[in-house]
Amino acid sequence: MPALRNALAPDRAAVGVKAADKREAIAALVDLLAAAGKAPDRDALLAAVLEREALAPTGLGDDCAIPHAQTDAVSETSVAVVRLAEPVGFDAPDGSPARLVFLLAGPKDSAAVHLRLLSKLARLLSDPEFRRALLEAPDGAALAGLIIGADQA
């Protein structure tokens, strides 16, 4: 089973991120991956994620969204996460906006890994105590640490 610790690192997590809408939230996530050297073609990754988001919204409800894409703009599967300063809508089934937004980006030939990591994230985020801990994390390193720690448990 793919591990989140292999796809996420503290330099790809941030708290207090300001975004007026989901496009800005996704751009902030793409920027984290680009700054970490995981998205050499930042603009192509952003376009791919926005295109995928237009096909079907990625809001889960309960303060969470997981926009994602498989694209040649990345060479390995990577995850970034932000906690937004103010929630933004991701068209969740329950209509609630998201404050915890994860980006999962992988190469086009990574469907199996992609689906397993999406499933793992969704399962972790279904736990209200875990979500509460993420919403209270003091910084990006702590946010990433909670996720990696939960994945190893």
- Shape type: globular
Within the CATH hierarchy, at the fold level, what is the topology?
Mannitol-specific EII, Chain A
Q: Unreliable runs, pLDDT <50, ≥5 residues?
A: none
CATH architectural label = 3-Layer(aba) Sandwich
CATH class: Alpha Beta
What is the alpha-carbon Rg in Å?
14 Å
Q: What is the terminal separation in angstroms?
A: 14 Å
The total strand number stands at 6
Largest pleated sheet: 6 strands, mixed
Task: Please characterize this protein's 3D structure.
- This protein is globular.
- The mean pLDDT is 94.
- Strands 1, 2, 3, 4, 5 and 6 form a six-stranded mixed sheet that branches.
- The chain has 153 residues and is α/β, with parallel strands linked by helices.
- It has a single domain (4-152), classed as Mannitol-specific EII, Chain A (3-Layer(aba) Sandwich), CATH 3.40.930.10.
- Helix content is 45%, strand content 22%.
Task: List the defining traits of the structure above.
single chain; 153 residues; alpha/beta; Mannitol-specific EII, Chain A; 6-stranded mixed β-sheet; 6 helices; 45% helix; 22% strand; globular
Break the fold down into its secondary structure elements and pairings.
Layout (H helix, E strand, L loop, with lengths): L3 H4 L5 E5 L4 H14 L6 H14 L3 E3 L1 E3 L2 E3 L7 E11 L9 E9 L4 H15 L2 H9 L3 H13 L1
Parallel strand pairs: 1-5, 3-6, 4-6
Antiparallel strand pairs: 2-3, 5-6
